[in-house]
Input
Amino acid sequence: MPLISVIMPTYNQLEYIRAAVDSVLGQTWKNLELIVVDDGSTDGTGPWLDRLDDPRVRVEHQENQGASAAMNRGFALARGEYLTWLASDNVFRPRFLEQCVAALEEHGRAVLVYTDFVNIDAQGHELETVRLEPYYPGLLQVNPGAVGVGFLYRRAVYERLGGYRDLVCNDLDYWLRIARQWPLVHLPEVLACNRKHGAMQTVVRRAELLRQVEERLRRERAEPGEMAADPCLMQGLTALRRTAEQLERALQLRIPEGAERVAVVGAGPLADLAVVVLSAAGYEARRAASPVRPEPGEVYLALDFETCDALRRQGLAVVRLDCDHASRMGADF
Output
């Protein structure tokens, strides 16, 4: 069995890192090394890591330099034939490595495999399953989140491209660099968990992240080379498919007592908020004003964690569309 190296950068996530570490050490693929790089944590993460007793674990400590620096330190030490990294608040399911290796072996030309995943809340309760798209050339230019949070790639990628750049969108930047040279492959299995919580970088540094994503995509689209798909068409089709899936779930809800309409609110990575209003008379769609304000008789149902967080910061009553919202809906309004 080839050696797999899993890099785990961490900073002040003692609350979640135990589950992340356990998910790596509990893999059905046993020939692995876990390199955890503590990026100057001050919450007790460092001492907890030093007490780990597993010969497959290597712990490195450094002054706080950011996620990319921590990841690059880990990859510089990695010895594996296959490489990946896992955020210390996320989780791999037990067969993640086993199934990813099999997929790469089956698709010999592909250098990176990515999987479907499930969003979980801070306590680990499942929120929603995220089904990603099959890979095609140009996908990342119309869907920058296409690779998701569960992926494995060949060592040849690191040897050719080197480390990660110091960006909030360091993962997107790396995937775009890979896609310039090699094909990727999608494994349609739910094999990872993406934890949603208020301290996520995608929440805390959201404005900076969106600026960087927009700039990175602008530069990528300006590079020579033809895209295999029309970006406007594919982006529209992707948005329609996802909205259809979300509305299918929303339409299964009962409108909360006392409300005339449910306003379902969601946003793409670079899009303004959009509202689909559901009522007994049917539905209508509109662009949300900024700041968002409900019309008389409306209550808000958010399609994603970021939208929910943004609306609640405005002081609005909002519930998030997830697997257990039905039982809690009455208490949220």
Q: What stands out?
A: The chain has twelve helices and 14 strands. The CA atoms of residues 24 and 92 lie 6 Å apart.
